[in-house]
Fold these 2 entries.
Entry 1:
Amino acid sequence: MAKMVITCALTGAETTKAQCPALPVTPEELAAAAEDCCKAGAAIVHLHARGGDGGPTADVKVFKKAIELIRKRTDVVVEITTGGAVGMTPEERIAPVALEPDMASLDCGTVNFGNDYIVNTLPIMRQFASEMNKHKVHPTLECFDVSHVQSSHILIKEGLIKPPYHYGFVMQVPAALSLTPKTLGYMMDQLPEGSHFTVMGIGRAHIPGICLAIAAGGYIRVGFEDNIYYAKGRLARSNAEFVERAARMSKEAQLEIATPGDVRKLFGLRGA
Ligand code: ZN
């Protein structure tokens, strides 16, 4: 039976408590959410850190506390962001990789982010990939565009990214690539042989993203980073509520839900 890997992006950099009262913000809240999501079927949690004001922070101490608390409560695979937030320097974004989380996101190109943008030049990508290799952190190659998948081929050729490749297709970010069966298909066509991929449907692309991932043999990402509405006009009560639905839909499609142990084996992570 094929297995579905579910990632939950607990918080992100943009969502606020005012928009979404159930948003986990402190390390304690992140750890509790990670445990609930793991019980609901998530094998991976994707982590951003927030400062005292609730806004995004690159403070390594906050990441450290959150990772420690998560590891005390659950064996879920921990993936940290290196996308950070709009306005952070590359040095700030890559610093938490030294904490040796299991995985980290690696943005594969520059992208519009609504009215803002996030810069990822090839030299930045090389620096991030090298740092991840040094700390034995497995990258999720985040692609916001078809050209980002193609850029990843350059790093693969240079030996900076090694298999098994795991891609994250971030789709329907405002002013970036939308999610349709055709755009997803074209992203998939550019993948190196044997790649794994997770579909991250932002906002209203949330449920289409789940359905397309199931149909196309991909994996699912849900969570407050990507979407806050469970249904039209109804906020999700928790990240776990999203995970529960994704797990239910996958099981109906005759997929087994991957455990954190399955993902450690799949990607050759520490402790596999
Ligand atoms: Zn993120």
Entry 2:
Amino acid sequence: MCQQDYKYQNPIFSMRKLIAANWKLFYTREQLTKIAHLRPTEQLEVVVAPPFPYIIEARRILPDFISVCAQNVCPYETGVFTGEVTSKMIKSINCDTVIIGHSERRTYFQETDVDIKNKLISCLNQNLRVILCVGEALNMRQLRFDALLEQLNVLEDGQSVIIAYEPVWCIGTGIIPRNDEIREIVVFIKDRCMKMGVECRVLYGGSVTSRNVGLLNEIEELDGYLIGGAATTDDLITIIEMCDRDKDGEYYR
Ligand code: PGA
């Protein structure tokens, strides 16, 4: 089977753009209902990540074509870990995707690459789709390729993942790298993954809004976005609509 065929058959490698909404601690029924009214599209995949207690409600209310995603997972599959939620539990509530390695988890909860590797393996064992976040802090800007290489080292031959490149200095700051800078990193990540035997799609995350997504859509190598702040407002619907049009502004559907 050629690489292209494989990509069409494996849901991780759908050729559609993926828009993932990371709601962090923000969640309202109103926002969920608005998303629930979206119409399916051949060109776009939508993923919504509510806080844990709202996953079941989100799965019940959202149409099937929208994936529901957890924002975190326990690195261990069982044991005495108060307050944790395992990949098996996440799978059992029809949640199909998990974000791991978000910079807020790395920074505020001191998550290490060892934790992230364990989370990754645990999720893949449960056939959960993983969005692995990587990205350099501001003080590593000059050494960003080294920082990324280290973070990508959690991956192993044969794995399939979605990688979100999120420069830490762009998250929630309104700052965004130039298109050529993002393109360079996306190509670097894809190349590195190919060498490691890892199948990947690459998203960009960090201050994505309806004001800059039109420009970002010009990066052909990019497979979609992980969106924080803008995903908690009606801007998410605008972004989805903007990504669902071709270059001439026509809707794909
Ligand atoms: P932001 O967050 O869109 O608010 O910058 C992105 C993220 O944290 O994933």
